[in-house]
Amino acid sequence: APLMGANAGEVLVVDSTSINLFKTLSAALEMRPGRTEIVSERYNFPSDLHIIQGAITHFYPQHKLVEGEESDDSILELMGPSTAVVTLTQVSYRTGLIRDMERITKKAHEAGALVIWDLAHTLGAVPVDLNAANVDFAVGCTYKYLNAGPGGPAYLFVAKFMWDKCHPTEIINNNIG
Ligand SMILES: *Cc1c(COP(=O)(O)O)cnc(C)c1O
Questions:
Q1: pTM reported for the whole predicted model
Q2: Which value, in Å, is the radius of gyration of the alpha carbons in the chain?
Q3: Going by DSSP bridges, is the β-strand pair 37-41/64-68 parallel, antiparallel, or unpaired?
Q4: Which residues of the chain fall short of a pLDDT of 70?
Q5: Contact criterion met (CB below 8 Å) for 90 and 98
Q6: Which of 20, 36, 64, 91 fits 156 for a cystine, CB–CB 3.0-4.6 Å?
């Protein structure tokens, strides 16, 4: 928790990054009924995009994924009254670009949206302060820059100010297949 600028109790070491992204995404979408857009980046880590697309296909068919380009400005342009969630990887695995977490989070909140940051290439590599940036949710793994090695579990962060507002989503599996 201290490494990511979180307080005790805000970080849970559990599951994989992908599963944690699904869990935080579904919890966040439930908190923004009536908003139908999930903003991310075209070049986001492929499995993150697969999770978003899978969540839409199987559980949130009324939602759509809106993909920006690599610049922070192209992401900001996509935020509006339909934006439910903005989810991005802070450090690009492809180019090393470091996104301005504080600026994007602030603009997302101004638009009425929630944020989920993927810290897989951030934590252990560059400084990060989730509480200073007022972040709602974050996810990431321990097996890259935290050196946990193969099989190391992932983590999720839920800001304390969200605890009484969100809950794990009960997904009913009968619309798969
Ligand atoms: C490695 C990585 C993942 C993969 O996470 P799993 O723990 O294998 O689900 C997800 N997102 C990013 C940005 C990654 O770098």
A1: 0.96
A2: 15
A3: parallel
A4: 171-177
A5: yes
A6: 20
Ligand 1 geometric centre to CA of 59 (Å): 22
Q: Is 130 left (phi over 0), alpha (psi -120 to 50) or beta?
A: alpha
Structure tokens at 56: 């839409």
The CA angle 75-15-139, to the nearest 5 degrees, is: 25
Token reading at 130? 């989730």
pLDDT at 167: 84
pLDDT at 171: 64
pLDDT per residue as tens digits for the range 1-50: 999 999 999 999 999 999 999 999 999 999 999 999 999 999 999 999 99
The amino acid at 5: G
- Looking at ligand 1, which atom is closest to the CA of residue 16? 7
Q: How far apart are the CA of 76 and the centre of ligand 1, in A?
A: 24
Which atom of ligand 1 sits closest to the CA of residue 44? 13
- From the CB of 16, is ligand 1 less than 6 Å away? yes
- Judge contact between 176 and 155, C-beta under 8 A: no
Looking at the chain, the number of H-run helices and the number of E-run strands are 4, 7
Across the beta sheet with 11-13, the strand order is 11-13, 154-158, 137-141, 114-118, 83-89, 37-41, 64-68
